[in-house]
Design a protein that fits this description.
Radius of gyration: 19 Å
Distance between the termini: 48 Å
Number of helices: 4
Structural class: mainly alpha
Largest sheet: none
Number of strands: 0
Strand content: under 5%
Length: about 120
């Protein structure tokens, strides 16, 4: 039973990473009026590098662990610890991954805006 619960937890965590990765940040929409495309390409690459400092996987792992713990407590009350822990891990990991992805988007867009580009989204 414990091995099955552990396997479910691992699969849930990996699923959360996949879902969070699929939510990859959409490209910002830049008002190109008066913009030098070559300079934008340079700034784009540099800002993208800064946004990579937001580590999504660490947030997903923490969220999964927290969700699993909360789920296990809830499962202890209703008698199904393994399923509740897996569900909690999936929810916690997914939510944390999506939050980290939003942070990554914000960093990228703020960087471009800070360099004088008009970011429209």
């Amino acid at each position: 039973m414990i091995m099955r619960s552990l396997s479910t937890l691992i699969v849930s965590t990996l699923g959360s990473l996949l879902i969070a990765g699929c939510a990859a940040h959409p490209d910002p929409i830049i008002d190109m009026r008066g913009v030098d495309p070559d300079m934008l390409a340079v700034d784009w690459d540099e800002c993208e590098t800064y946004s990579e400092e937001v580590v999504i996987a660490a947030g997903v792992a923490r969220g999964s662990a927290t969700g699993a713990a909360v789920g296990a407590i809830a499962g202890a009350i209703n008698g199904d610890v393994g399923t509740a822990a897996a569900n909690g891990a999936l929810y916690g990991g997914t939510r944390s991954g999506l939050d980290a992805d939003e942070d990554k988007q914000r960093v990228f867009k703020r960087c471009l805006a800070g360099r004088g580009y008009r970011v429209l989204n």
